[in-house]
DNA sequence: CTGGGGTATTTTGTTGACAATAAATGGCTC
DNA sequence: GAGCCATTTATTGTCAACAAAATACCCCAG
């Protein structure tokens, strides 16, 4: 159960965190209709802060609200998920370019270190699941913040990634291609280390495009039913 | 004064609309610290719905909140404003591409019609101010929705445009180049009408890049002090 | 006169009760 | 028996009072 991560600054923040992780992990399934009182007892909250959190979640597109009719978790169709990747492609392309221009040498070294640890995890075979789920997220997270573009990072980290992760938890998006994905990551970091913004953008766009095509293929094969 | 636009479905929606327009129009200045009780009396609201609205506004990045210390309107620096245009460049580039692929012939005709009316306004000289402020917004709005990419439209219309408009109200972003901007708009629509996604994306990116450079120049000249 | 500490005040955060609206159920008519 | 309308019920929206926290002010010491 998604308890409050440490102590949040305020009850509303706590509610927000709880609900967000609950939605992302699938504890609250897409399309599920949820009552306010039920949520209150479930997360030990009162309705005031809860409603504030619900507003924030709605504003971020994680749930939809119909006046007087309750709130339900947003359910993203397969087509919409693919559209999300189209957005990621251009936004993360920009992030990679700006990261190449602005990341400190230290940050780049750390980035390379995380890739090393990812590689070890993959070699240990069973690490695959973790790698795609969290390692991949970690990589993209670092580049988003490395762009030094506050709004870009906010939109990626606070908006898009949550929606993507929501589905990554139940379907292994890049399953079967962890080595390939890692190699793509390496090339991107290489370009960033060489301060080659053009190349970093190009490689990142291609990387995300590949992930999108991978999902598309799986959907066609019927492996993924969203 | 920014009264409730018609009757919103709920008090919180009303509060949200009021505050959003108040921020965008500059009625609430950037950096201004605002107390909850003051806002309540100002917009005839009670604190419950207000707080819900504040949460939504914060989530959208229009205001910042420090626990127990109040809320103040976000103030975007010149550098951050330029970063916003970098994001617009890639996102609206994508929007233009997808619009070229997906807009109906009817929508394209309407788009051309709006450009005609914009042209008339410019010819009537005094229309300049309106054109840049609302006509330009109208154009970009139509393309965002025309992309048929729900999340992309949501991010552009619900997030970025409000921040940009916030500054467009006090500084004339594309002042001095209305004819040029219109010509660029025409070319973009032309590419969309020809279903040339590549070209539409390219032209849109160049258009927004030009707008960014224009602002950059003004800032260097000291005309704009943000 | 200036700096630090403590109290007072203001403002935010939270709570539980109340009102209004939509969904659900049951009864009535056709 | 089926469909529609009214009533009931449950749930959401709203409110005003209470508690907690941070800022501001004032007093005192150096």
What does this structure look like?
- The structure is a homodimer of 226-residue chains.
- By secondary structure, chain A is mostly helical.
- Chain A folds into two domains: 11-73, Winged helix-like DNA-binding domain superfamily/Winged helix DNA-binding domain (Arc Repressor Mutant, subunit A, Orthogonal Bundle), CATH 1.10.10; 78-221, Four Helix Bundle (Hemerythrin (Met), subunit A) (Up-down Bundle).
- Chain A has nine helices and three strands, in the order H-E-H-H-E-E-H-H-H-H-H-H.
- Chain A has helices at 11-25, 36-43, 47-59, 78-102, 105-123, 128-146, 150-168, 178-193, 197-221; strands spanning 33-34, 63-66, 70-73.
- Chain A has a three-stranded antiparallel sheet with strand order 1-3-2.
- In chain A, strand 2 (63-66) and strand 3 form a beta hairpin.
- In chain A, helix 1 (11-25) packs across helix 3, helix 5 runs antiparallel to helix 6 (128-146) and helix 5 (105-123) runs antiparallel to helix 8.
- The radius of gyration of chain A is 19 Å and the shape is globular.
- Chain A starts with 10 loop residues before the first helix and ends in a 5-residue tail after the last helix.
- Mean pLDDT of chain A is 87; it is low at 1-6.
- Chains A and B meet through helix 3, helix 4 and helix 7 of A and helix 3, helix 4 and helix 7 of B.
């Amino acid at each position: 159960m998604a308890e409050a991560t440490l102590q949040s600054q305020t009850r509303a923040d706590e509610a927000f965190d709880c609900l967000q992780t609950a939605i992302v992990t699938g504890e609250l399934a897409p399309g599920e209709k949820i009552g306010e009182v039920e949520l209150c007892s479930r997360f030990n909250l009162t309705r005031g802060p809860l409603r504030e959190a619900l507003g924030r979640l709605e504003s971020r597109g994680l749930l939809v609200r119909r006046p007087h009719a309750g709130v339900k978790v947003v359910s993203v169709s397969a087509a919409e998920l693919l559209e999300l990747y189209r957005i990621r492609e251009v936004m993360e392309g920009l992030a990679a370019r700006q990261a190449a221009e602005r990341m400190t040498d230290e940050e780049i070294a750390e980035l390379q270190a995380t890739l090393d640890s990812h590689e070890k995890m993959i070699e240990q075979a069973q690490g695959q699941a973790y790698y795609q789920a969290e390692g991949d997220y970690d990589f993209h997270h670092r580049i988003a913040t490395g762009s030094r573009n506050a709004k870009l990072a906010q939109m990626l980290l606070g908006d898009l990634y949550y929606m993507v992760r929501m589905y990554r938890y139940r379907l292994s998006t890049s399953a079967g291609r962890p080595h390939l994905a890692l190699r793509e990551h390496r090339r991107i970091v290489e370009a960033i280390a060489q301060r080659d913004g053009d190349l970093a953008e190009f490689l990142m766009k291609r990387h995300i495009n590949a992930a999108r095509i991978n999902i598309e293929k799986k959907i066609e094969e019927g492996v993924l039913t969203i």
